[in-house]
Amino acid sequence: MKVSPGALAAELGESGMIERTLLLEEGGAMETALRRAEYQEWPRAEMLADLWRWALWLVMVRGYRAQTTGQRYVLSLARWGAWCAEHGVDYAEAKTEDLDAYMRWLYAGQRLAASSRAVMAVATRSFYAWRSSRRGGRNCAHEVRVPKRPKRMPRKYTHGQLRKLFAAIEETRSAPERIRDRAILLLLYASGIRREELCTLRLADVTIESQRIATLKIRGKGAKERLVAIEGPVVAALGEWLEVRRKDERQAGIVEFFSAVKMRAPLKPEGLERIVKRTAQRAGLSQWGVHMFRITFATQLYDDGVDIERIRTVLGHESIETTRGYIAVANRQRAVRLASHRQHSALGSLPADLPACAKKLEESKR
Fold first, then answer.
1. Neighbours of 253 (CB within 10 A)
2. Is 282 a known active-site residue?
3. In this predicted structure, what is the pLDDT of residue 66?
4. Could you tell me if 27 and 34 are in contact, meaning their C-beta atoms sit under 8 angstroms apart?
5. Catalytic residue check, 221
């Protein structure tokens, strides 16, 4: 059944409804997910109210305010709620067998990939762990296993692809959009900033110290802040975009650093994706993505001799193992290989390009 506003208000109480209103007023990905959740079928009004309490906890405690992680968690739990309503399962009394049946349904009935099912499993475990500690309910999800995601080699932009990307930006007809898009792509490349981090970057977070050096204060996952230094052409590009903003009256009042050029609104993650896609298609690239800039950034730092712990810090990772997964096939990795003379020794052969005098010397040793 669909939960009426009155039933939800009765479950959340006055203070809970005030917190709900404040969260919805912030907009963004979380608002979209929560509104979608309210329009669907729920087994009981109490579960929707618990979803709201859990979402507020994700925002206030876990720091998922501007992150797509929070949105994906909410949508994942809403899917579990819809399944419970359809199959007559009481979420509060659900058993491990019910969750196992749900995970099998996601695989066989919905054909979801392991990565999507993993998010569903993690979100469900998080919800029931929260509910057990805060509301006193039983935790039926502690034994749910997260599906293993297939490990793929991270993809990076090659030098030639980067040249094509930045050349393609110059084909943008609108000068303000061209200046903005160049600044965005250079910042993605020079800082390894995440998609959501770039879209929530504020004017006050960028400190341009000189014509070639600047510092970014980035608010990352889990409400953690970090400072990232940048230098070179990206600093000049950011300065050009600031000058465009200063002359455009429509940009007044927008605190975010990047905005939609043709309207009075900050740049959204979907808009950022469209900018990268449009530029990549114009450049004739078959593969592209915002995240590929982050992989390229990490890999090139590694090639330049930066130790992996410093790369972890600048990327904002908690675990160094996560950072290792960001290093694509690097030049330093290519240099680690068994020398060919070892193989010739095992085969009893000589290299074809060995000088004649050296061949005689090697043959005399046998």
1. 7
2. no
3. 52
4. no
5. yes
